[in-house]
Write a structure and sequence with these properties.
The protein starts with a helix and ends with a strand. Helix content is 52%, strand content 13%. The strands form three sheets. An eight-stranded mixed beta sheet has the order 6-13-12-11-10-9-8-7, with helices on both faces. About 8% of the residues have low confidence. It is α+β, with helices and mostly antiparallel strands. It folds into two domains: 210 residues, no CATH class; 165 residues, Trna Endonuclease, Chain: A, domain 1 (3-Layer(aba) Sandwich), CATH 3.40.1350. It is globular and about 90 Å long. Helix 15 links the parallel strand 11 and strand 12.
């Protein structure tokens, strides 16, 4: 039986309800803002028609004759535009509070599991959330479409629409009721769009908060050689509204279970760490799916999925901490892992800087960039950009591979120098660690290397230590690791056991 599975899941259901209650409050506030706006606009139009209309009609000629056109238009736009700060603050507060509620709720739940009591201090250490983390969650850099830009784009679209409707009304000499209906149509569209943004973003950060916390918990379990791992299962609302189209099929995702570090492979071909995070509108907008989370050992995971944990022998696992008093002779890999973990083994023992060797052998611009048959260039702009950088910096044929071959086997991003290479774009050291774990699986049949794009301000020493830990735990004997920041090569490390 999974460790306190029922208890953890019940707690997370309660946390999700708290987050949903906060979302309902935000929706009610947004509804109130727009109701007040409609009332204010109707009152304004009524007063303006009473003062300026001739035969109950307003036209360009009438407003210009009385010198009122510019003022009339400006006041309408200002009233509509005045709601924007309220909407932004409401949605931003919703996102911040939802993320924090879900992140802390999951960590607190794991802290209370008796079987993991020895790791209580480590779990306590990750319970705090930095302002930078919350900011990243709010602005959603993964999708390259920030909350601010989404709201601003919608604001401009609505104002442009209202300007157009006022122009039509004044050209036709509409009565007050007709102009009010024209403007109201766009205000109503703005309301519906604002509600869609609020619901979509609240769902995204709810799942993101749970997912980030679960990822940190899983890293602690892995780094401390626990037999347990965090496992996640995709769940739908199991009703007629669950999306089931050619663009997105969440009905078939229901019940799919993977380890926390793995992405879900959606039927559209997109990948997502959790619902709402694929970056594809058809998959994410108004999605109501969620993840249930459990802590399992390898035996339990095999019963649930028919698969074993990475590196598992398939035998029943035993938590090393429970056998610390027994005389055991660790194998070489375990000893090496413990040395790295305790800081007694230096990075250069398994990592060697080969940057100069690559530069000496480089033939910039030679060779060509090749695309796999049927390669979808529009969906892989970053991979193509990096392939061009590789070609211009080191030369050689760079082949961009499809996400899967004809047999459905997942493929790495590139074939370069006759070996497989995988690209990972990360925003933190922890993200680099998880990225490397996934990349190792992608290149293992013909390992060449992994390209990791990192922020410029990353602490390289800390990053190398974390990546070395990941390499030592892997089943690969050798590959190269290329670190890149803002399009510039930082270092190339040869990882060799």
């Amino acid at each position: 039986m999974a460790v306190s599975k029922e208890t953890l899941e019940k707690l997370l259901v309660q946390v999700r309800r708290i987050a949903e209650h906060r979302e309902a409050k935000a929706e009610q506030n947004i509804k109130h803002y727009f109701a007040a706006l409609k009332k204010d606009l109707n009152s304004f139009l009524g007063n303006e028609y009473a003062k300026l209309a001739e035969d109950d009609k307003l036209t360009y000629a009438i407003l210009q004759k009385k010198g009122e056109y510019a003022r009339f238009l400006e006041e309408v736009i200002n009233k509509v535009d005045g709601i924007s700060p309220k909407l932004k603050n409401e949605v931003q507060s919703l996102i911040e509070e939802t993320y924090e509620t879900c992140y802390k709720g999951l960590v607190k739940g794991v802290e209370g599991i008796d079987d993991l009591a020895r790791l209580a201090k480590e779990f306590k250490a990750i319970s705090a959330i930095s302002p930078e983390t919350v900011k990243r969650a709010v602005q959603n850099p993964i999708k390259k479409l920030t909350l601010n830009s989404t709201l601003e784009r919608n604001r401009k679209k609505v104002i442009a629409g209202i300007r157009r409707e006022i122009s039509i009304s004044l050209t036709q000499g509409d009565r007050m009721s007709t102009m009010a209906r024209r403007i109201s149509k766009h205000v109503e569209q703005d309301y519906r769009k604002s509600m869609l943004i609020a619901r979509t973003e609240a769902h995204r950060v709810r799942e993101s908060g749970f997912n980030d916390a679960a990822g940190n918990v899983n890293t602690i379990l892995t780094d401390n050689n626990s037999e347990f791992r965090m496992v996640k299962t995709w769940k739908t609302m199991k009703d007629g509204a669950v999306r089931h189209t050619n663009l997105a099929n969440h009905v078939e995702m229901d019940g799919v279970t993977v380890i926390q570090d793995e992405d879900f492979e959606l039927k559209s071909g997109a990948k997502a760490s959790c619902p709402g995070m694929s970056g594809i509108a058809a998959e994410d907008c108004n999605c109501r799916c969620y993840l249930s989370r459990h802590i399992m050992n390898d035996e339990e995971y095999f019963k649930a999925t028919g698969r074993h944990f990475e590196g598992s022998t398939g035998e029943k696992t035993v938590d090393k901490a429970d056998n610390s008093s027994l005389p055991q002779k660790p194998d070489k890999k375990t000893a090496r892992t413990e040395k790295v973990k305790n800081g007694t083994q230096q990075t250069h023992s398994v990592f060697r800087d080969v940057t100069q060797e690559y530069l000496d052998d480089a033939k910039p611009g030679q060779g060509q960039i090749i695309f796999d048959e049927g390669y979808k260039q529009g969906r892989h702009k970053e991979e193509i950009k990096t392939a061009e950088w590789l070609h211009d910096t080191f030369g050689g044929d760079v082949k961009l591979l499809n996400e899967a071959n004809k047999d459905g086997v997942k493929m790495p991003d590139y074939l370069w120098r006759d070996k497989y290479w995988e690209l990972k774009d990360v925003s933190s050291i922890n993200g680099a660690d998880k990225g490397l774990q996934k990349a190792i699986k992608q290149i293992q049949l013909n390992p060449g290397g992994v390209l990791i794009k990192i922020p410029k301000e990353t602490d390289l020493s800390a990053l190398e230590i974390q990546l070395e830990r990941r390499f030592v735990r892997s089943n690969l004997k050798e590959f190269d690791l290329m670190l890149i920041a803002q399009g510039k090569l930082l270092k190339i490390l040869r990882c060799k056991k």
